Amino acid sequence: MPALKVKIASLQLVLREMQQMVVCFSGGVDSGYLLAEAVAVVGEDAIALTAVSPSLAPEEGTDARRLAEQLGARHVLVQTHELDDPRYAANPINRCYFCKVETYEVATKHARRFGIPYVLDGFNVDDRGDYRPGRKAALERGVRSPLDELGFTKNDIREAARRIGLPVWDKPALACLSSRFPYGTEITPERLRQVWLCERTLHAQGFKVCRVRYDDVVARIEVEPEEIPRLLESSLRDVVVREFRAAGFQDVTVDLQGYRTGSLNEMKARSAEVVSLTASEC
Fold first, then answer.
1. How many structural domains is the chain composed of?
2. Cβ distance 150 to 122 under 8 Å?
3. pTM to 2 decimals?
4. 3-state SS string over the chain?
5. How far apart are CA 212 and CA 111, in angstroms?
6. Statement to judge: residues 10 and 137 lie in one domain
7. Considering the chain, what percentage of its residues have pLDDT values greater than 90?
């Protein structure tokens, strides 16, 4: 693979040749870095577009707006309605495809409105190894992925972002709230809010990386493995149980394997690897 500086120079050249683009911008490091380079190269001819829906934590939309302002980008926040699609709400294994159809349709519509020829996203080399049905929606609609095309890995992106002082260069990856639900479990605005409230509780307690996996009346917490002992401390445990029950869960468990992507694709029966925060009260 070429040196990072060569990749960066190639990216800047590609963006300069495009001249105008809409960047699908979540506020994370991948799309954030792409937007930063686009604004540096073409200025106001790079428009950031952030899709807002119940599957996006409210603070993520706020953070995206703040970052776009810091970068000096033109920024559009648009409401998307993937939950209105029964195919998405049913939460099949290819749920992300229906979400991205909605997002990219909105993005390409805005691009046409502004007379802009390109829609870009932050897909990169490391994303190739994961199951991403939304990728098909991007390809169908001609969405370009310059970071992937030029061989940027996640580490490349973080390092390049760090070099230009991008504040989200070390921001943990954050999938949409719908990813907390096992396939086949219906997704509703109420359930999404339930998960969001619980994850907000964990963030307030200092857990930077966390997930709350939904299993009907049971919430399964994933945090970094080294953070698990702190989560099990009695004072913190009591706060978590109280807040999770207020959000609508009856029982709260902790996955002893800790946070990892794709855990909902694993077998559900892992009782030896899960400890309950509420078992003593059952």
1. 2
2. no
3. 0.89
4. CCCHHHHHHHHHHHHHHHCCEEEECCCCHHHHHHHHHHHHHHHHHEEEEEEECCCCCHHHHHHHHHHHHHHCCEEEEEECCHHHCHHHHCCCCCHHHHHHHHHHHHHHHHHHHHCCCCEECCCCHHHHHCCCCHHHHHHHCCCECHHHHCCCCHHHHHHHHHHCCCCCCCCCCCCCHHHHCCCCCCCCHHHHHHHHHHHHHHHHCCCCCEEEEEECCEEEEEECHHHHHHHCCHHHHHHHHHHHHHHCCCEEEEECCCCCCCHHHCCCCCHHHEEECCHHHC
5. 35
6. yes
7. 87
Q: Residue 264 sits in which domain range? A: 188-281
CATH classification of the domain holding 232: 3.30.300
pLDDT average, residue stretch 128-144:
90
